[in-house]
Amino acid sequence: MSCQTARGSVVARLQVAVALLGLSALAVPFPAMAQYPTTPPAAAPLRPARFPKFDTGKLPDGLNMIIVEHHKQPVVTVTLALPAGAAYVAADRTGLDGIVAELLTKGTESRTADQIAAQIEGAGGSIGAYSDNDFLRITVSALAENLPLAMNMLADVVTHSTFPAAEVELARTRALSSYQVELSEPEAIAQRIFAHEVYGDHPYGRNYTAATLRAITRDDVVGFYDAHVKPRGALLVVAGDVQAAAVRALAGRVFAAWKGTPAPAPAFPAIPARSSTEIVLVHKAGAVQSNILAGFTLITPRDPAVYPLTIMNKILGGGTDARLFLILREQKSWTYGAYSQFTRPLGLGTFLANAEVRTPVTDSALAELLHQLDRMRNEVPADSEIASARSYLVGNFPLTIQTPEQIANAVAAARLRGLPDDYVPRFRDRLAAVTPAQLGAADKRYLTTDKMVVVVVGDGTKILDGLKRLGTVRVVDVEGKPMAESDLSAAPSAIAWAADRLAPSSYTYRVMVQGNAMGQASSAMERASEGDRAVVRITSSMNLGGMVSQSDTMTVDAATLAPLHLREAGSQGGQQMSMSLDYQGLHVAGHVHVPSREGVHDAAVDTSLAQGTLDQTVFSALLTALPLASGAHWLVNAYDGTEGTVRPLTATVVGEDSVTVPAGSFACWKLALTGGQFPINFYITKTAPYLIAKYELVGPPVVFELTQKTP
């Protein structure tokens, strides 16, 4: 259908609509359809970006200040940045800076955590703190009329924080949960491994672990705060509907008692030099996709090559119109998206390109990604590509400095990196001045595609051979520990079930979400028979605040605990769900109807399984029948009916714990189950009656606590 025909049909439909609405008597005119232009108009001259004026200064105790007057909105953002990031933390306490940042707003000598939150919210604002490799930042936003409250609160948290012991433990628990979640998310795994491979023992390459987080004490928190949260060398940026003179006077009053010089930065190990490209395969058993991350060290923040490299990145992977996205997704259909970026910390930054691809095309996608990086290094892009990328970046830049918070962040980032005061106001002018020759020279010099780190997170059993065709491959686990190729195909464990531990019983649990009771769960076990076969039948149910309602019935052979039947029904987020599976030896058949990220998964099941494959839901229900002991470990292949896939599950006894729940206190084995959607920790009693006293999802703040048991 031609464009003219399409427009005509639209006009006809509009005329019909007018008639149906009884408006024909109004004689609504419809203009003749002129031919639209076939080429875009010429670009208008670049108009200067109107960056608000800013005032700089320093308080007597060495606190640097930048005040940005921006009177378009009656709001203000105050950001305090201190040289107290991860680089200032000892290696065996990695993660301490993040815990300190979180705790700064959890109580002072005059305000509790709840009072801090209530007061700033009542002023129409917010307060928060975070840290990166180099700096710890605290940001307070509020209505401009409440600037005195915002400044007083900021001064209070940096001079009078108390770090309550209970809050320290909560922060550590949240950090440990985040760590476990990271180890289950391929993207986070890739970033952790990439940082360590690129930076080595330099602080930029460190990742917190369970050991470093558990080692952190309240004394460590207070010691870091006392040593590094000092005014000299820190930067205070106030941006918004303010007057510079009034801000200077206010800052002088509220920070008058804050004094001191921070401890000097430690000496950093050298960043390792690379002589060739290496592929690091991170084995994640059962992964259905592969996460690819490839890159290298790039520039320091004061290098003028930032301007041509910014245009390079836009052309290569800076959006949905960039080469990586158009080729790997639009042309090849290998991924939902492929992008690139570069970082600019205080020290040496990195460039990286990433894509998440289907497992069968991992090697092809990586080969194409590497080809596009080489092409960018060795071929100057066409003038049209450069002009398009440059025009987008120049035109979009004013949108990144519209709000006081954006302005404060941009000005603070420039000053902290040691850049001149005109860096932000003149950034787009310098981008607009980049020539094709400058772009080509920067790409050739800085894109060291022959000395890259390539990290691929995926199922090594399926992608290793393909990766070997592309270069040298080293295999590690999700924590970065070396693995032998033979470890990839480790045989599932033969489980010597203690079936006699499955005694008839019933249990009730309360479901706690972020420490609040949000629902209830129950389970019951009975011994029965099906014809001449003795069976164990387990029924369970859960209701979570009306959001999730589910009931299950599982039947297993009483002697072997092999799955026989599974029935599930319920709703999730208002969507109905059901699953009916029947096992006969190594064959499973039935039907599933479950919500998924792509919509409702509705499918018949009729498949054969390998010897020793268990049902994932049934296995989780039989954990009390495992012969638990210190250090015990099982690897099992489990069929997941919701996705129709077999995934490896790992159950490991990681320690002992004394657990107190409403039903009583119990001495328990702590069993970590990984490989499912979320890692789960189960606390299983060490003596009869064998039961699960508590289980908790690692990451989501959801805990199930035993409230009643019968008998």
Describe what this molecule looks like in 3D:
- By secondary structure, this protein is an alpha+beta fold.
- The protein is built from 18 helices and 27 strands.
- The strands form 3 sheets. It has a 15-stranded mixed sheet. A 6-stranded mixed sheet has the order 1-2-6-3-5-4, with helices on both faces.
- A hairpin with a 2-residue loop joins β13 and β14.
- α2 packs across α8.
Helix content: 25-40%
The tally of strands reads: 27
- Structural category: alpha+beta
Mean pLDDT: 90
Biggest sheet overview:
15 strands, mixed
Count of discrete alpha- or pi-helical segments spanning 4 or more residues: 18
- Quaternary state of the chains: single chain
Strand order of the largest sheet: 20-19-18-17-16-15-14-13-27-26-25-24-23-22-21
Task: From the alpha carbons, calculate the radius of gyration and give it in angstroms.
Answer: 30 Å
